[in-house]
């Protein structure tokens, strides 16, 4: 596999994939075009960026290469990107923070190129993960079944199970500067809110729901069980060496 990934870099294919993403950035003309075309383009760009992330996480050679492409890092470090999909944001800052920490020597600074240090990237990763935890808690409390926060929480946890190096980069990022306890508390807060919500909404409870509660969207028990498993997996990842204890938390998971 390493040979294959090395060939992807040597052939120039990896750079072409990166440029495909960077050169198709949305413009004012795009926003005024047909909605269907704009949406399709956004989906392709999103999937292309995730392909770059996976390849960069699977091979440190590709990861270090991606981190040196200014057209890409200018986008990843921008406020616009940070306001987008939170799973992609957390994953990229974890990966780039890990790569920056492993690089020796001073960083080259070029005009018009955004530069963030490894510590700055790790702080962003931790801050945005804690934001995701808060969003998940808010979703649980409100009982919003179709909200993306819980799905994002599950997707991030599952990506760590599938990509061990990315999991280790995340662990290093959120634990930097003594941030481990804050992150554990954030995850714990998600878990604490799950049982109460589950007991309130599942059939067989003695609670009599008023009209307002009956109108609330309800999160299914399968999702709640998967989030609980994700929380446990992330805590284990933080507390143990390596990632052997990290488990996948699929939506189809059964309750423990």
Please sum up the structure shown.
The protein has 256 residues and is mainly alpha-helical.
Largest beta-sheet details:
none
Written as H for each helix and E for each strand, in order along the chain, the element string is HHHHHHHHHHHHHH
Structural class: mainly alpha
Please tally the β strands and state the result.
0
Helix content range: over 70%
Descriptive labels:
single chain; 256 residues; mainly alpha; 71% helix; disordered C terminus
What does this structure look like?
The chain contains 14 helices and no strands. With 256 residues, the protein is mainly α. The protein is globular and about 50 Å long.
Layout: helices, strands, pairs:
Elements: H1 2-10, H2 13-22, H3 28-31, H4 35-58, H5 60-67, H6 70-76, H7 79-82, H8 86-102, H9 118-142, H10 148-162, H11 164-175, H12 180-201, H13 211-215, H14 221-239
Helix pairs in contact: 2-4, 4-5, 4-8, 5-8, 8-9, 8-10, 8-11, 9-10, 9-11, 9-12, 10-11, 10-14, 12-14
């Amino acid at each position: 596999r390493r040979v294959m990934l090395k060939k992807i870099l040597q052939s120039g294919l990896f750079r072409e994939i990166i440029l495909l993403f960077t050169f198709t950035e949305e413009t004012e003309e795009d926003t005024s075009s047909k909605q269907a075309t704009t949406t399709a383009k956004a989906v392709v760009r999103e999937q292309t960026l995730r392909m770059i992330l996976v390849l960069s996480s699977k091979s440190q050679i590709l990861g270090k290469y991606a981190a040196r492409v200014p057209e890409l890092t200018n986008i990843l470090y921008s406020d616009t990107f940070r306001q987008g999909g939170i799973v992609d944001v957390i994953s990229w800052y974890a990966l780039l923070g890990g790569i920056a920490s492993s690089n020796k020597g001073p960083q080259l600074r070029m005009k018009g190129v955004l530069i963030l240090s490894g510590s700055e990237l790790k702080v962003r990763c931790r801050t945005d993960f804690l934001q995701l935890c808060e969003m998940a808690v808010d979703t649980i409390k409100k009982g919003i079944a179709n909200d993306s926060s819980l799905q994002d929480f599950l997707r991030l946890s599952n990506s760590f199970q599938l990509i061990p190096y990315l999991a280790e980069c995340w662990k290093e990022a959120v634990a930097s500067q003594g941030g481990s306890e804050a992150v554990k508390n954030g995850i714990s807060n998600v878990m604490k809110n799950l049982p109460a919500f589950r007991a309130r909404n599942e059939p067989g409870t003695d609670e009599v729901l008023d009209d307002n509660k009956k109108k609330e969207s309800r999160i299914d028990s399968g999702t709640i069980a998967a989030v609980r498993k994700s929380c446990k997996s992330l805590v284990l990842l933080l507390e143990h060496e390596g990632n052997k204890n990290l488990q996948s938390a699929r939506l189809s998971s059964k309750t423990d």
